[in-house]
Design a protein that fits this description.
ten-stranded mixed β-sheet; about 20% helix; globular
Length: about 300
């Protein structure tokens, strides 16, 4: 018999401003402990030294994690020009350097090559799997790591500030699987001066923005008190990018049993589109819309 999970049946999204020096997994575990939740997960890993938006899903909200993971995300980051490191960030060992420093206009001109559909090679010190092993484990063991290029959609990449000759601050909005460290590394190569990430902050992720974030220290302050519940975003926030349909009592029962059911679209929805159904303001299911019916793929128990 499976062991029953301890904790509360609580569902929703808690959005944290992740501090530097903490892993994304550690943040999830801290949220789960502080809220005494049965189930939790995050929507998009941040490097340990990165800060900013980390959306943590609780309970039934974990079923919407893929939609946030696939959504566009935005980062503000500072590139240290003139140095390449083996980790592509400030934590690594400097492996190449240059006295060359590009002008502002040269930097702006180079950014265009990193916008749109691009091919990106993830850092050697990353969680990418190679023959079943994490790349960072192989790199730490001194093994030569060869990672194949991966497609990435970059919506926007702009120059925000030039702190001094050695540093430039950029903002990037991109799709799933983007490595900011790779952008900094490849931009440095394109400019002929090398580069790595000095600071990195995620400023929004899908529907969640930095202004929505709860300070990490509040987890300890309000742990086990129920006070954190007031900061939860509803489960359906994770479905923000999908069209919505409405269902009646009969359809609710059918959908929750995994069967297709008649629905009423709130807007025009084409045949075969993915959408989510609601009843009395609560999400019921996600599925494919076909000729006036929703064919469920995920069902919510709220």
């Amino acid at each position: 018999m499976a062991r029953k999970r301890k904790g509360r049946d609580i569902s929703g999204w808690l959005v944290l401003d992740k501090p530097a020096g903490v892993t994304s997994t550690a943040v999830v575990n801290k949220v789960k402990w502080a809220m005494d939740a049965k189930k939790a997960g995050h929507a998009g890993t941040l490097d340990p030294d990165a800060t900013g938006v980390l959306a943590v899903a609780l309970g039934e909200a974990t079923k919407t994690v893929p939609y946030i993971t696939d959504a566009l995300k935005a980062y503000r980051f500072t590139v240290r020009l003139g140095q390449a490191t083996n980790t592509d960030d400030a934590e690594g060992e400097v492996i190449a350097s240059s006295e060359l420093r590009p002008t502002d206009d040269e930097i702006k001109a180079a950014l265009g090559a990193f916008v749109g559909d691009i091919q990106q090679i993830p850092p050697k010190f990353s969680a990418v799997k190679i023959d079943g092993q994490r790349a960072y484990k192989l790199a730490r063991a001194g093994e030569e790591v060869e990672i194949e290029p991966r497609p990435l959609w970059v919506e926007e990449l702009t120059m925000i500030d030039r702190e001094d000759g050695d540093h430039v601050t950029l903002e990037m909005a991109c799709g799933k699987g983007g490595y900011v460290r790779s952008i900094a590394r490849d931009l440095g190569v394109a400019l002929g001066c090398y580069g790595h990430v000095r600071e990195l902050r995620r400023i929004w992720s899908g529907p969640f923005e930095i202004i929505d974030c709860l300070e990490f220290d509040l987890l300890d302050k309000h742990a086990k008190t129920g006070e954190l519940d007031q900061f939860l975003f509803p489960v359906e926030t994770g479905l923000d990018g999908l069209p919505q349909v409405l269902v009646n009592d009969v359809s609710v029962t059918r959908l929750r049993n995994g069967n297709p059911a008649p629905v009423v679209p709130m807007d025009d929805i084409e045949f075969g589109y993915e959408c989510w159904a609601s009843h009395d303001g609560q999400p019921v299911a996600v599925g494919i819309y076909k000729a006036g019916e929703l064919h469920p793929s995920r069902v919510f128990n709220l």
